[in-house]
Design brief:
This protein is mainly alpha-helical. The protein has helices spanning 13-20, 24-33, 51-66, 71-81, 99-121; strands spanning 40-41, 47-48. The protein is built from five helices and two strands. A hairpin with a 5-residue loop joins strand 1 and strand 2 (47-48).
Length: 124
Amino acid sequence: MKDFEFKKLYYSISEVSRITGLEQHVLRYWESQFSELNPAKNRAGNRIYTNKDISLIFEIKRLVREQGFTIEGAKKVLGSKAGDGSAQLVETEVAVESSDDLKQILLETRAFLNDLIEKLSGKA
């Protein structure tokens, strides 16, 4: 994942497209598919993305483009993360070839979460 630095409060769709490496039509499509991705609009009707929106886009991109989830599979994963805090079993649509693959995925997830915690706590 690219190192994304939080510099502004709001970003235009063209800026988000450059930051995430995704085309604008993909961002608009994902908005229609993921209820969690709902950027506000300014008076002119232009989308204004927050840092939270961009982080969510990176998460969706990771699930769909890097891990091979379908849109529906990514929705399930995101839904389980945004749930009531209880652990939920989510069927994934990615085949894990071996326990080494699973271990690597878990280690990468831990590193991502630790980095996110540091950024949120202001230590980064």
